[in-house]
Amino acid sequence: MLLGSAFLVALLGIPSTFAIPTRGAEKSKYIDWKTFKANGVNLGGWLVQESTIDTTWWNTYSGGADDEWGLCKNLGSRCGSVLEKRYASWITTADIDKIAESGATLLRIPTTYAAWIHYPGSQLYSGKQTTYLRDITKHAIEKHGMHIIIDVHSLPGGYNGLTIGEASGHWGWFYNQTNLDYSLEVIDNILSFIQASGHPESFTLEPMNEPADNRDLSVFGTPVALSDEGAAWVLKYIKAVQSRVASVNRKIPIMFQGSFKSVNYWSVNFSQSDNLVFDKHNYYFEGRNTTSENLPSYICTDAKATPGDGKFPVFVGEWSIQALYNNSFVLRERNINVGLAAFHKYAHGSSYWTWKFSGNATVGGEGTQTDYWNYEEYVNRGFVHPKNGDVTFCR
Ligand SMILES: *[C@@H]1O[C@H](CO)[C@@H](O)[C@H](O)[C@H]1NC(C)=O
Ligand SMILES: *[C@@H]1O[C@H](CO)[C@@H](O)[C@H](O)[C@H]1NC(C)=O
Ligand SMILES: *[C@@H]1O[C@H](CO)[C@@H](O)[C@H](O)[C@H]1NC(C)=O
Ligand SMILES: *[C@@H]1O[C@H](CO)[C@@H](O)[C@H](O)[C@H]1NC(C)=O
Ligand SMILES: *[C@@H]1O[C@H](CO)[C@@H](O)[C@H](O)[C@H]1NC(C)=O
Predict the structure, then answer these.
(1) CA 393 to ligand 5 center in whole angstroms
(2) Which of 148, 314, 339, 391 has the most crowded Cβ, counting Cβ within 10 A?
(3) d(CA 128, CA 122)
(4) Is residue 24 part of a domain?
């Protein structure tokens, strides 16, 4: 996702200690996204750092950088300890219990490539991300039966020029075979992590997020953010990912976030039998004349369009209720439930961006960003009751 001019970046751990005993006797039940639906949340700001998510933390450690790459560079030798502390504290098992109590059954977890590989020259930190990831997902799966989407939020060289794709102004992932090879090493290591988790049936693998090669960032969030040539490179990667997954465990679903192109644009290039689910991001804070008042009509229009041609299931991996104009406190509860209900009814559910969000940047209308992005606060206020979410708004 992209907020004004600042975004997501990330960090995770290195594979090598994925020694988790398998619970062999347990019957594994793999999900079929064609029939599976879930409401969930993203764990943003945990293993990927973003300037907008936690203003106080960012101001304390970034040294004025706009991305995690710069934050780590500015922190120098302190980067590791600052980030390890973040991994240990921003999301804990208590958060997972609270998420489960709210009725959510899915976690989408952004990671940087540096969680999975050492990439020469990278400023992104490779530490114990996978240890934290293992502990949190084990808890979520064993205690609450949750489904986990592991999201690769950046790739070597950078794939969208944003803070979150590796670093601001980095597009070096495109058309670079070396970087593609490193990317597939990321996939191999995630597959090892999933296979060693004891619960391979509880994971979906999302190999990238919001790829874009258009250097005009004002078109980010629209179909032209990714050129046809760029899309062909993305497709080459996704096909290679499919073949890696198939060689290890073809029952692990692949979730494909195809930038902001329609599902129909891509679906022709995949076979009906592929174990594939699309991820479409539906945001309202820019690009359209949205207000808190008219948000349900935009949400419903998006929800109905989300499935595309119906060849593959589609999940809404990110969304939020910040509108461009006239944001209103009193309309939040309605809007959150309209989105939960509509994306569940017309698509395969959604994961809100994001569980914790304390960023205080200004918005049009009442409050600041934290009032429209912080799902935990909606749970605290008793706003979340998707079963009562009303899709009559969508008729
Ligand atoms: C956001 O919080 C920071 C301190 O963390 C403060 O310096 C800044 O003025 C605040 N911005 C707004 C819009 O409230
Ligand atoms: C590919 O990326 C690597 C790493 O950034 C770089 O060293 C190399 O020059 C790039 N190759 C090409 C052909 O651009
Ligand atoms: C998908 O397949 C169509 C039809 O064969 C082709 O024209 C198009 O270029 C392919 N898309 C990509 C992104 O390669
Ligand atoms: C938003 O409203 C303004 C003023 O009515 C109009 O000029 C503009 O075209 C609208 N933008 C979109 C994306 O509909
Ligand atoms: C926002 O609210 C103000 C005051 O009610 C109103 O004048 C204005 O037209 C609204 N803006 C939009 C885009 O609806």
Answers:
(1) 21
(2) 339
(3) 16
(4) no
